Amino acid sequence: MVTLARMPRLTHALQWYALLGAPLAWTAQLVLGFGLSEAACGPAGQRWGIALDAWEGLVFALAAALAAGGWAAAAALHRAVGRGEVTDANGRVRFISTTGLATGAIFLALILYTGTGVLSVEGCRR
User: Fold this and answer.
1) CA dihedral 61, 111, 82, 9 (to 10 degrees)
2) Over the stretch 8-33, which tens digit does the pLDDT of each residue have?
3) Which residue in 32, 61, 85, 97 is a FRET match for 23, CA 20 to 30 A apart?
4) Per-residue H/E/C for the chain
């Protein structure tokens, strides 16, 4: 019979946030950014006067904050496992936190590239 030690809920939640926070933030940035540009640059959006730069900047800041938080969660878990503060008999927490560190850095860079690129373009171009 195999017995598994129950992991504390906070550690479990931090693992998933560390692993998926940055990729999901980047995905949300792309989807919301596309929707905002379609809404602002379409015929109806031009009449409504949607401030594209302000909304894109807000989405950029939120995505960057979520990705940085996920990367920080991965770093905290990685450090806690190294210090022995988190029991990790199978190495799962160490593996997920290491993967979160790598993917978090990559997706945070993608968020920064996307955000600065979008904010540097002026207005709607068709």
Assistant:
1) 60
2) 888 888 999 999 999 999 999 999 99
3) 85
4) CCCCCCCCHHHHHHHHHHHHHHHHHHHHHHHHHHHHHHHHHCHHHHHHCCCHHHHHHHHHHHHHHHHHHHHHHHHHHHHHHHHCCCCCCCCHHHHHHHHHHHHHHHHHHHHHHHHHHHHHCCCCCC
More confident residue, 98 or 40: 98
CA angle at 89 for the pair 83 and 90, rounded to the nearest 5° = 120
Query: CA-to-CA distance for 36 and 28, rounded, in angstroms?
Result: 12
pLDDT digits over 45-84, tens only?
767 777 788 889 999 999 999 999 999 999 999 999 888 8
What is d(CA 101, CA 95) in angstroms, rounded to the nearest whole number?
10
